[in-house]
Amino acid sequence: MPARSWLVWPKSSGRGRGGPPRPWCSAYAARHPDGELSATCLYAVYGPVSRLCSLASAGHVLPALATPTLPGSDGDDRPARSAAFLDMPIGPPLGLGGLPFETAQFELAEGSLLALYTDGLIQRRTQDVDAVRTLLCDALAGATGSPGEVCDHLLAALLSGRPADDVALLVARTLALAPGRVATLDLPSDPAAVSGARRFSSDTLSAWGLGDLAFATGLIVSELVTNAIRYGKSPIRLRLIRQSSLTREVFDASSTAPHLRRARAFDEGGRGLLLVAQLAERWGTRHSREGKAIWAEQALSH
């Protein structure tokens, strides 16, 4: 999985967009009144820095997870895996209303396999569903190769002939970023901390061989940190992530999302996020239980 991945798995309809699982499901359900549309959905967000995966289910079957446990034997360096279904709450299907959606969070080991699927994969008219669930876990634990090859292995193990219901399967393998690709700085809620954040960013990019991005990054970091100090809450944290893109993130404990606006000609402020939007290829806000992060991303050619 790349730097941050969103997996949206609807049974019959729906589409994904960046954001935490529970609010996305709630927003979708609010736009479709009772009886207008019904669909199950499983929404997952994974971050390879923290290795945390957040999931919310709207009436969808539980995902299966295969976790590395032991090094291989007999000259085989592939890790052994144990597989089980994630223990998480299941909310009502989208469009039916009822109880609010809940988010479950799991820390995943690097190299884990997460299987998302529709119920047609495990439901049989002539076979006990628990037996099929056990077969799915056994097949996932013993699967090798790329995620696509794992999908082929699972389909061959669970399906014989034409299935009675539609079947969709998605397998993701988790990655974790090496510590040398992440730099973090805790900041006080003090305007004087902005200059220190710029120096930290410049020094980090120089160490990564990305000195040509130091000026733009300094401007972005200055605006994001200033915004967090003025309108957010402590603790405040700056994080730089180097992967196929350079990501600058500023966390604070407030859940209030910033809004892009155009300042008037004589306004002294109000241009920070507009500047960030012009300098970065992509930017946005990510909410979590602890608060929010505003991030800005730029692709790397190095």
TrEMBL record:
InterPro entries: Anti-sigma-factor_SerPK, HATPase_C_sf, HATPase_dom, PPM-type-like_dom_sf, PPM-type_phosphatase-like_dom. The keyword Transferase applies. Residues 1-22 are annotated as: Disordered. It comes from the Bacteria. Residues 33-174 form the PPM-type phosphatase domain. One of its GO terms (molecular function) is protein serine/threonine kinase activity. SUPFAM superfamilies: ATPase domain of HSP90 chaperone/DNA topoisomerase II/histidine kinase (SSF55874), PP2C-like (SSF81606). Coiled coil: none annotated. Keywords: Kinase, Serine/threonine-protein kinase, Transferase. Transmembrane segments: none annotated. Residues 187-295 form the Histidine kinase/HSP90-like ATPase domain. PANTHER family: ANTI-SIGMA-F FACTOR RSBW, ANTI-SIGMA-F FACTOR RSBW-RELATED. This is PPM-type phosphatase domain-containing protein. It comes from Streptomyces venezuelae. The lineage of its organism: Bacteria, Bacillati, Actinomycetota, Actinomycetes, Kitasatosporales.
